[in-house]
Design goal:
By secondary structure, the protein is of the alpha/beta class. The chain has helices at about 15-25, 60-70, 75-80, 105-110, 115-135, 145-155, 175-190, 205-215, 250-255, 270-275, 305-315, 320-330, 335-350, and strands spanning about 1-5, 10, 30-35, 40, 50, 85, 95-100, 140, 160, 195-200, 220-225, 240, 255-260, 280-285, 300. A seven-stranded parallel sheet has the order 5-3-1-6-7-8-9. Strands 12-11-10-13-14-15 form a six-stranded parallel sheet, with helices on both faces. The protein has a two-stranded parallel ribbon with strand order 2-4. The protein is globular.
Length: about 350
């Protein structure tokens, strides 16, 4: 097959980028793959090719609005591909789209947001909605949550295949994990005997419940890894860390992972934490919560019950046992299986063409 993967940017971080790079690496072993992107970090030994797409990237909205213009100029090239696989709304004429988010649902979940950002998200949701209402190809949803939201918010009536994200389990289960645990705790001033919980992600979706948990559970230390700076607070049992390219050292330092998100289409950090052997305490607003059996390999709680439920379990549950089961669950969701499932979807699409 000749496969075109279309994405705004291809980097080593971010859900869309990581997903696309995994597909490019795996599928190029058997097929001819080209990535169409505004920016693409391509290793010299990569088997796939890249094609630059023009876009004005002053801000997120400008990128969403102008990238489709660049894709239109690539129409003749894209017409030569059997599969044109787009990551979210990117324009053009794809026959496969992976839905990584439903912007309209995300916007509805936000309680406090700047007017400028709300207007930007409304415009993005409008563009996304128009696309899905007119689109007749196959959609890959990264969770059942996204599948439902596309039906509800955008009235999409086409075929949807749910393929959850995967995890590189080997990266988060390395022999040096114990060394990372001790070194990271020492760096943050946390003793090895203190129960420590970790959060990784955007604070705009979690800061209210995180702060309430830290205040109600002073005997637990918290490490919060986030690029967000607006929602931080001072507390003796909280250590803030800026975004990092080595999150595995913080997973190694923790005893549990807390994730009170108000909206996540999936939440790759949940699988990363589980692969690291951590019991996770997530709200039911994360798509990855669908992979967790509550009370067995993690905890899934309603957002309005999350603080009380997480506090109780953090202080009383057998965290080690749950963490071991979490690792087993994560091992069933590797990226190779994701790529194989996507490849089968391509075959299904071509058979129906």
């Amino acid at each position: 097959m000749k496969i075109a993967l279309i994405v705004h940017d291809l980097r080593d971080y971010g859900g869309h980028s990581r997903y696309t790079k995994v597909l490019a690496n795996e599928l190029s072993e058997r097929h001819e793959v080209t990535v169409f992107a505004n920016t693409a970090e391509r290793p010299e030994n990569a088997r796939w090719q890249s094609q630059h797409v023009s876009a004005w990237r002053r801000n997120a909205l400008a990128g969403v609005q102008t990238f489709p213009w660049g894709i239109r100029t690539m129409a003749s090239k894209l017409a030569n591909f059997d599969i044109r696989h787009m990551q979210g709304y990117c324009g053009g004429a794809p026959n496969v789209v992976t839905a990584h988010i439903c912007v309209a649902a995300y916007l509805e979940s936000l309680q406090s947001i700047r007017i400028r950002n709300r207007v930007s998200l409304r415009l993005m949701a409008a563009a996304e909605g128009r696309f899905y209402r007119r689109y007749h190809g196959r959609v890959i949803a990264i969770s059942e949550k996204i599948s439902r939201e596309l039906r509800e918010y955008y009235q999409f009536r086409g075929a949807i295949t749910v393929i959850p994200h995967g995890v590189d389990a080997g990266r988060f289960n390395k022999p040096q994990s114990e060394q990372d645990r001790l070194a990271t705790r020492a760096e943050l001033g946390i003793s090895d005997r203190q129960t420590t919980a970790l959060y990784v992600g955007d604070l705009i979706k979690a800061h209210v419940h995180l702060k309430a948990l830290t205040e109600s559970t002073p005997q637990v230390q918290f490490i919060i890894v986030s690029g967000s700076t607006l929602y931080r607070w001072d507390a003796p049992n909280v250590r803030f860390v800026s975004s990092t390219t080595r999150p595995e050292r913080y997973y190694a330092a923790a005893d549990a992972f807390v994730f009170p998100t108000s909206y996540d289409a999936f939440g790759m950090v949940l699988l990363e934490a589980m692969a690291s052997g951590l019991p996770v305490f997530t709200s039911d607003c994360a798509g990855a919560a669908e992979l967790i059996t509550h009370g067995d390999d993690g905890y899934v709680l309603r957002l309005d019950e999350w603080v009380a439920g997480t506090r109780e379990a953090l202080l009383n549950a057998e965290l080690g046992s749950i963490g071991r089961k979490a690792k087993q669950t994560a091992s069933q969701h590797d990226w190779v299986r994701v790529a194989r499932s996507v490849e089968q979807t391509y075959r299904d699409v071509l058979q129906l063409a």
